[in-house]
Each structure stands twice: as C-alpha cells, then as structure tokens.
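To close the chapter, one final illustration. This time we ask the reader to focus less on the individual chains and more on the assembly as a whole: which components sit near each other, and how the overall shape emerges from the parts.
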Amino acid sequence: MAKAKAARKKQAATTGSIEQLLAAKEIVIHCGSGGVGKTTTAAAAAAMAAVHHGGKVLVLTVDPARRLANALGLESFGNVETRVPPEAFAAVGVEPRGELWAAMLDTKQSWDDLVHRHAPDAATRDAILANPLYKNITGRFVQSHDYIAMERLYEIHASGTYDLIVVDTPPTRNAIDFLEAPERMADFFSSRLLRWLTVPARSRVLSMASKPFYSVADRILGSKFLEDIAEFFLLFQTMYDGFVERAKAVTRTLEDRRTTFVVVSTLESAPVREAEFFIDALEERGLHLGAVVLNKVLPAWFLERGTTGAAKALVARSDELAAAVPDPAGPPEQVARVLREVGESFLNFQVVAKREAETRAELAAAPDVIASIPYFDHDITDLAGLLELGEQIWR
Amino acid sequence: MTTELLDRRLLFVTGKGGVGKTTIAASLALLAAQHGKRTLVGEVDAKGNLADFFEIGPTSFQEREVADNLFAMSMDTEESLKEYLSLQLKVPLVARIGPLARTFDFVANAAPGVKEILTVGKFLWEVRERSYDLIVVDAVATGHITGQLAAPQAIQELVQVGMVRDQTGWMLDILGDPAQTGVVVVAAPEEMPVNETLELVERLGTETVVDLAAVVVNRVLPELFSRSEEEIFDALADPSGDPSPADVLSEAVGGPVRPILDGAQLAVSLRRTRSVHLTRLRDELPEGTPLLYVPYLFQRSHGARATRQVAEHLGEELGF
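The assembled structure is written out below.
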C-alpha cells in the first residue's frame, strides 16, 4: 500500500501540466468548494482537450449557467450527451482535432433509468416509480445526488464512447461526500434495519418486542410511516444485488489509475481549507490527485517590485504629478484626484494579492501540478472565452 | 430601511457557496449582540468555519457564550435527536440512546425530512422557549435550503401519526410568521450567485411558508471614478504617445506605474461587469425586498476583524 502510494506520488510529480494530465487520463473529476468555478474550469479543460488532443471528449456537468450552455453553442443540454457543433468552434476561428460533447446530470431521470435497469419485472418497476416515497427519496435525499453523479459517470465510461470524460461534481455540503456515496449506498441497501423493515409485518411485531429502539423509532415516526417505508424498500430490495454490484463497480472506477482528480479552489480562506481537506481525503483513499487549479487569482503584477512605493507616491504627490502629466483630459485638481484613487485602489488590491501569494505558497507544498487562472474582468460568454481561460492552465 | 430585520426572532442566512454566507451570519449575530440582544448563532454545515469568524475554539451542539450577549453552537442532528427525545419522551432514555444512535443515520436517511426537521426543529424550539431574543442560523447553501425549510410540511404530508407529526403544527406556525422568522439570502454581484438568489426567492414563495427578510449583496466593489474622471483615467492609461503618461509618471515617482494603472483598470472593469448583475438582481427581486450592501473588504484575513467590519457596515445599512 505504502509502495503504491509512493509510486503514485512519483507519477503525479512527473505529470507536469494539465495538458499532460488530460492526455494521460480517461476520467478527470473536478472537485472543490461551491462557487470556486468548477463548472467553468471543467468545461474549459474539456474544450482544450478536444481542440488540442483530439478524440471524443465529454464534459459532464451538474448545473451549468445558461451562459455556459450558450458558450458551448448549445441551446440547452440534458441527460443525453449532445455534441457541441463544429460551427461553434469555427465561429471563433478554431479547428478542433477532436469532438466536444456535453451532458448535464438530471438526478431524477438518472434514478428512473437505474430503476428501469435493475427492476426484476415491469410490475415492480412501475410500483417503484409510482411510489410517493420514491420521489421524495430521489429528490430530497442528499446523498442520492452524489451517488447518481458517480453512477452516471461509471455508466458513460463503461460504454466506451469517449476518450476523455471531464466531470464537474455536484455542490455538496461537503466535497468528499460523493467519494463515499457509492459505499454508503451499498451499506444502505445491506443494513440491518432495512432487512428488519422489509420482513413481513407479523414477524416484525415479534422482533419489535425484543428490540426496544425500534419501538422508539415507531413512536417518533409513527407505525404507518414505517409501514410506508417498509413497503417501498420491499420493492427496492428486489434490486439489491444489481445495486450493490453497481455501487462497487463505481468505487472501482474512482480508484482506477485512469481516473484523476483536479481540486479547484480560489485563494479565499474557506475554499482553501476545504481544498486542503479534500487533498488529504484523496490521499487517504489512495485516489489520484492530478492537479490543483487556483481560480480568480489576482494578477502577479500586483506584487511587482517597486509598485508599492510608486503607488504611495501617486497618492502623496498627486498635485505635483498631475501637473507633469502630458495632455491631461481634465483640470489638474481632477487629474490629481484620479491619481490618488488609482494609487489607493492599487494598495488595497495589493493587500489581497499578498494574502493570496502567502496562501498559494502554503498550498504549493503539495507536489502536484498547480495552475492558476487570473481574475477575469468579464464574464465568459462564448467558446473563445472558455478557450482563453483554458490557455491559462494548459501548460 | 430600519432596524426591524433584527427584531425578528429567527433568521436563516443562506446563499450560493463562496459568497460569504458565514461572514454575513456571524456579522448579523455580532451586530444584534452589540445592540443588547441576547443572540444565538448556529452553524448548520458541520464544517467548523463559524468558529474562525469569532476566533474561538471549535463550537459544539452545546452553545457557549463567545462575546457579551452572543452565544455560538453548531448543529449535530444526532445530539438534537437526543435532546428532543429526553425532552419529549417521559421515560428515561439513556439505555436506548446507544443502539438508537447506531441506526439513527439510517432512519434519518430513509425517512426524508427527518434530519432536516431535527435541524430546523432545534432552532424553532429555542424560539418557542424564548431562550434568545434572536437566533441567526448559518444555514445550508441555496441548493438545499428549501428542502430544509419545507421539512415540516413534507413530514406532515408523509407521516400521518407519531410524535414527529404532532410537532409539525407549532413549527409551521413559527416558520410561517413573518414577524418571527425570515430568510436572509446572501448574494455576490456575479452571474451565478444572482441567478441562484432569484431562483431561491421564487422557490421560497412556492415551496415554503417562510418569509424573505432581506437580500444582502456582499463584496460590492467601490466606484473609483465619476464619468469625467473616467475620461481622465482613460487618457492616463493610454499606452500610445511617446512618452506615454505612464512613462512620465514612472520616471517622476521612480517606480513602475503601468501595473498600477492596470490595477485600476481591472477594478473599473470588474465593477462594471458586476453592476450589470446587480441591476438585474434589483430589477427582478419582488418589489420592496430590503437590499443591504456590504463593500468588498481589502483584507489580510477573514477572522474576527473582518466580522467586526462587516457588522459595522450592516449596522449602517440597517440604520443603527
């Protein structure tokens, strides 16, 4: 195990760039705290891979902004994979070597598909789909979202349709939840309570007497509700074998050498904390950390030598400097005010840039690829924008 | 805008990930405490971030006083269940809690809404008991909040009898009373946070009984220039001309001025891009929704200092 870890580390250390990472892997999973730009980063990476590496590349995303769909030249995309039209690339003057496909995760639809696949017969299938608890569980049960994302990934990968699948993970309360989702799902279906709930009602009465905590559950939730749950799980139980088998296969896919994780973060303290936590969690599970992408980083020139003094001088000597400006577009006192604003704004941003540099240095202790994406002052509205962003992390 | 936001008894603070939800929750609680309200701030995501905003050690389910009038706790649904059972069941439970805890996760997962109702229920219980003047909840992010707030209704629909069902009535009364309960949505003036805010506001109305108390726009960048000053700036930043204004200024101050002008340019265009989203937010929110603005803070860290500063800005916005 330790040997495997060391080998992995070595492999990671020699990977070198996002470009190489995307060329070498089949599944690239983007993860990180909410709001750090996972979706955009994943789409940009996939677009770059389609342009430069060729082959069939799929970006599987969870909840894309309408603009992202537009940026990919798609009106909308759903559970079924859709090809980004070659015209969308042509429109921005790019001739991709490969194909870019996009799909969105539709949790409800994916669950329905799963039931269709695993139900032993049509009657059971219809009974499950019609059960009111089913809708609640697939919709509200938080882990169901995480699980279905991984399950869908497995399914697409196993179909052998794509050379590379770039995935964006769902916004979870905790970024590692989805790593554990397949295992939890398997546990869930093999748990003691589920077995108890799904035994015929008469023998349950007997076991209830011997197990006082079931009666507590009964008092809290009411026996009718427990009956409802029992009925539902009795139906679900029929899919048990297929389900557990599948959950195991999903776990194997995550652990496969062809799968890698890209941790995305900004340099704000909370996302960084989560990123560090995630990096540790990957290592603990023996999963491959391919790269850390830092998004919305202030440009490096905020820390250029001599700028602090120059900005302070603009503020302190604004009147004198305003008089020296060639062809000013306004009266000297206004020019002086602009110079003061410019200097002060720079010094303000520099405080943030210094903090970011410090945080970045701490993160860089991890021996994997670190790439940064500077703060874009405009929204990404087209494929050109995505590729521009992709260029920032490529090499 | 008046101080009435803090006159409610229970505020759920939510927002898209990364917008500063916890900062706003911590600051609102601090502000209320500073104005003499006995305040509880509770963290729902068990990430332990809240403690950082007050520079205190880890919080737990058992609340503790972290400043004058200010108490902090973090939600733990298993603890909440134990507390609930010991309060509600008249029989000694100690012996049963062990095995119950082991299967708790399963029951909570299998029965939709149970975990949620234990979370929301704890805070509603504190409101009912009048233990605090104000409870501020650092709630789950926009994607999950309606599920949490709608849990009592969901339970009512799904569970016909039993103790949990019996409790939903008074919970819904408190949740649905705008004088007592409200949701504060935190947004940043960027595309996705604005989209999610607008979607959430709509869903709050259709899926829950809870009132929208306010929208807080966090990290608003300062306006650097007036229109005429912007022209002056454009002339200063113009790289043509030999020497260019940047060259002349660099020479005069003895250091590079180009990056400084680029920095201002970035600040100006960021503000411009964001104001589009801000306008959309203002236009599409229901009329009369209170909007509070918190400026972007150029700071070293996100600790107690930042919490205090944000509390000050919120205080100004609320008319304290």
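Chain B has 13 helices and eight strands. The two ends of chain B are 10 Å apart (CA to CA). With these observations in hand, you are ready for the problems at the end of the chapter.
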